[in-house]
């Protein structure tokens, strides 16, 4: 079995798969130690290899790899920047500066689409990337995600105070809000939708209607109903990680 890790700034997404791609287990944890606890508490999960994509510092990533080696006897392969990989040419002037989570999602989307595509990841930060028909990465955009927008309003506006349950309830519709929580939550969702709409304007300017749209990330569900043409792929990063770090299962 293979352990796959997507190490973000706030959380670690993990799953254990067979080399065939069948998922055995998975989840989201807040620390390296919590990940090790999950693995140790599941006797049936005994991955011998790990592939990992990280936006953390090299020191943090190396620390996790060392823990997996010493406590679980798991060898880790870390996805690395590349100028060209998986039929895609990295479009950043300094290719090594493109976030690795974005890069592997780009690889997966281009493989799935086989044509021009737009990749939008709606997570802590919202990112978009444009890939041409011939696999040229044209660049992209980054803006704050829902949690960051909400957090800034709560932090810098004295009268905006509400709990997470109220926030979830407020997003049941997108009618004009009649309370602060409704106004903030629905306004932030509309900003996300507006961002996606703008990306599609760029895509249409490039390719007309001849492209594919991919949505991923934890808040993709908040905008997906407005874009029925979109492919919703929650594990897009993991699919791209398999392209960047191919492994043969050890037995």
TrEMBL record:
Q: Which residues bind substrate?
A: 92, 99-102, 180
Give the keywords, sorted.
ATP-binding, Coenzyme A biosynthesis, Cytoplasm, Kinase, Metal-binding, Nucleotide-binding, Potassium, Transferase
The record's Gene3D superfamilies line, in alphabetical order, gives: 3.30.420.40
Its EC number(s): 2.7.1.33
Q: Which reaction does it catalyse?
A: (R)-pantothenate + ATP = (R)-4'-phosphopantothenate + ADP + H(+)
Cofactor dependence: NH4(+); K(+)
Q: Where is the active site?
A: 101
| Pathway terms, separated by semicolons | Cofactor biosynthesis; coenzyme A biosynthesis; CoA from (R)-pantothenate: step 1/5
Give residues annotated as binding K(+): 121
For ATP, which residues are the binding ones? Answer: 6-13, 124
Q: Where in the cell is it found?
A: Cytoplasm
What does the note accompanying the cofactor annotation read?
A: A monovalent cation. Ammonium or potassium.
Any one GO molecular function term: pantothenate kinase activity
- Classification via Pfam families: Pan_kinase
Q: Which NCBIfam families match?
A: baf, PRK13322.1-4
What family, per the record?
Answer: Belongs to the type III pantothenate kinase family.
- Subunit description: Homodimer.
What's this protein's function? Catalyzes the phosphorylation of pantothenate (Pan), the first step in CoA biosynthesis.
HAMAP family listed in its UniProt record: Pantothen_kinase_3
> What name does the UniProt record give this protein?
Type III pantothenate kinase
Q: What is the lineage of its organism?
A: Bacteria, Pseudomonadati, Pseudomonadota, Gammaproteobacteria, Pseudomonadales
| Encoding gene (name) | coaX
